[in-house]
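PROTEIN DESIGN WORKSHEET
SECTION A - STRUCTURE
LENGTH: 237
TOKENS:
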């Protein structure tokens, strides 16, 4: 797979929707993840990320403008021991609860499917990072309709062992803008991971479409110690 510039991939897609990047820092010392949300409607744009425990939750910026919380208010990031879960919906809780009962990442998602938002049937994208005793691996998942057919769900899981420094994988809900919105296709894109946490955060945030971007979460986890640093950027302030 061809390595792509994350900056260029983001700049060339006016509406990737929600996206997850997971990889390893250029110096090899940190497990890296980024999660961003975008929006076209007032309801979708009326959000911020707030800290909740070791993870985050979406929250209405102006509660008076919140019309339907069902698919936009959720916990995108939760931590289960040495595992960090990152998703674009309430399947975060499903993964957390079932992995806590010794199910695998893939097994935990078998009871879930794409979002019920016809005609888009937005894919559910998920990632899990496992950092323990100097070892690091991660996996990503997408649950999507079969070419827009709501009666069929296609499930794909991608696992990455001992990821290389400076490389990551990027999965997002949409290939671009449209009506209906075109679902992500193929395996997660191979992208570069550049700089420390602040440089990487700036790169992602500044590369997202200015009109549509809403919030960004970035975390660097020290692979040797498990300690982490987090950055949150909200357009609404």
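SECTION B - SEQUENCE
RESIDUE ASSIGNMENT:
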């Amino acid at each position: 797979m061809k390595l792509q510039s994350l900056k260029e991939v983001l700049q060339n897609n006016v509406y990737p929707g929600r996206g997850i990047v997971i990889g390893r820092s250029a110096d090899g010392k940190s497990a890296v993840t980024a999660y961003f949300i975008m929006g076209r409607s007032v309801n979708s744009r009326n959000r911020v990320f707030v800290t909740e425990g070791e993870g985050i939750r979406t929250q209405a910026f102006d509660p008076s403008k919140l019309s339907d919380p069902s698919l936009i208010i959720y916990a995108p990031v939760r931590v289960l021991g040495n595992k960090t879960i990152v998703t674009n919906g309430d399947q975060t809780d499903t993964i957390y609860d079932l992995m806590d009962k010794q199910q695998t990442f893939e097994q935990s998602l078998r009871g879930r499917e794409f979002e019920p938002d016809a005609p888009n049937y937005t894919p559910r994208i998920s990632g899990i990072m496992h950092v323990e005793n100097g070892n690091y691996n991660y996996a990503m998942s997408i649950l999507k309709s079969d070419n827009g057919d709501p009666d069929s769900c296609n499930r794909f899981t991608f696992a990455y062992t001992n990821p290389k420094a400076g490389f990551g994988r990027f999965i997002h809900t949409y290939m671009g803008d449209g009506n209906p919105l075109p679902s992500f296709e193929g395996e997660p894109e191979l992208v570069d991971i550049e700089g420390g946490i602040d440089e990487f955060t700036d790169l992602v945030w500044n590369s997202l479409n200015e009109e549509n971007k809403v919030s960004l979460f970035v975390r660097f986890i020290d692979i040797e110690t498990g300690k982490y640093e987090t950055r949150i950027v909200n357009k609404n302030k």
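SECTION C - NOTES
Residues 6-234 form a domain with the Glutamine Phosphoribosylpyrophosphate, subunit 1, domain 1 fold (CATH 3.60.20.20).
Residues 197-207 form the longest helix (11 residues).
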